[in-house]
Amino acid sequence: MKSIDKDHTGSISLAIDAGDPLGGVSCELDARHIADAGQVHVGDTVNVTGICTGMLTDVVLVRCSAHKN
Amino acid sequence: MKNFRSVTFSLIALALMATCGFSQSKYFTKYGSVTFDASGAMEDIKAENKKATFVLDATSGAIELAVLLKAFTFERALMQEHFNENYVESDKYPKSTYKGKISNFSEVDLSHDGSYPVKISGKLTMHGDTKEIPAKGIFTVKDGKVSGTASFTITLSDFDIDIPAVVKDKISKTVNIHVALWLDPLP
Q1: Three-state SS letters, chain B
Q2: Deepest of A50, B81, B103, B143, by most Cβ within 10 A of its Cβ?
């Protein structure tokens, strides 16, 4: 995992490294799984479950849950 | 004399770099918020997408916003399913973009704290159609951080989105869209 980002609306997204400096996988945690952000750390290998909505600069997943592999 | 010229040239170059060489040329976010309200007389229909990508070219005032339609979340899952399958057909048209320009960008100074109303002209592409949509917005600079909001209204029929007769009282023919952005300088 590359970073844990909190936006101005309070949403938390996990940025997953995909080996490309210009893009990766962005996973927005579901409101029911916000606490997952406290269980994982930058550098961890994580398992993420969510809904893939497509790709802009990143592949975008929403309504995610995450836990350390 | 040659040394004097060299020192003078260096000082002028340094002064130019100090005044214009370090100004930020692009601002960006991957976490923009786009909300819409298509509430009809009988039902609230609202959704939010917190994954909008936005780029501002601060040298020209050009802007570009992109959203994935499947990333709009509704309070009710069934409403979200209908939105994706019956109205915007997000499997066929997964992305919507707004490309435009801030016509009064010369009045915006992103290097100074303040609130700057802007007029935006641009084209919205959605559901396979592209239409000219003007918008009004405000850029705010506070403690050096740049944020912005904008609002505009679209008519669903302009984008070939049909409302079935059975739900025509529940869904508005026009949709109010609000955009909120918190921008970072693009490295």
Answers
A1: CHHHHHHHHHHHHHHHHHHHHCCCCEEEEEEEEEEEEEECCCCCCEEEEEEEEEEEECCCCEEEEEEEHHHCEECCHHHHHHHHHHHCCCCCCCEEEEEEEECCHHHCCCCCCEEEEEEEEEEEEECCEEEECCEEEEEEEECCEEEEEEEEEEEHHHHCCCCCHHHCCCEEEEEEEEEEEEEEECC
A2: A50
